[in-house]
Write a structure and sequence with these properties.
Elements: H1 12-22, E1 27-31, E2 37-41, H2 42-55, E3 58-62, H3 68-78, E4 81-87, E5 94-98, H4 109-116, E6 121-122, E7 130-131, E8 137-138, H5 151-154
Parallel strand pairs: 3-4
Antiparallel strand pairs: 1-2, 4-5, 5-6, 7-8
């Protein structure tokens, strides 16, 4: 959505493009965590942002599965595959990861996006169960509530040095 005085979307990429077009040699100085001052120009930032965008191969997104349009945009614009990861603090923290199986790697874009729109598969060592509101287990294809897990139970006999 564009405002009345904006001629482009208010995105970081648009701001960098504008700054590069209008002030490519303007100096930017910022202090790094270690203390010294880092100096560059808007032109430098523009070139680096293009390099980073071209270097992307995978983008990991946590939480709910990324919208299909977002996965498609990353793939078609940057050639980057979206990997979805989900978990809870009690899980330490990953529970599922949505990555392609070897047999799915040859899928066309539409088929890959269908796979990527899902939560993924449970990580090794994670057992999941979906419950209804009364706590009764539901089939794996259903929607419901995930009960809290006790991952430590799995490792209770492990002895760390």
């Amino acid at each position: 959505m564009q405002g009345l005085m904006q001629d482009r979307p208010l995105l970081i990429s648009s701001l960098i493009e504008h700054a590069n077009a209008m002030h490519p040699r303007a100096a930017i100085a910022s202090r790094t965590v270690e203390g010294p001052v880092h100096r560059c120009t808007y032109g430098d930032i523009h070139r680096r942002s293009k390099q980073v965008a071209n270097a992307l191969q995978r983008v990991v997104i946590g939480g709910s599965a990324a919208p299909r349009a977002m996965s498609e945009k990353f793939e078609t614009t940057f050639g980057a595959f979206v990997v979805h990861a989900w978990g809870m603090t009690e899980m330490s923290p990953l529970g599922t990861v949505c990555n392609l199986l070897p047999k799915q790697r040859g899928f066309d874009l539409r088929q890959r996006l269908d796979v990527q729109a899902k939560q993924g598969r449970a990580m090794f060592g994670v057992e999941m169960r979906i419950n209804d509101d009364a706590g009764r287990p539901l089939p794996h294809t259903a929607t419901g509530k995930l009960p809290k897990t006790k991952l430590r139970e799995m490792f209770k006999d492990c002895r760390l040095p």
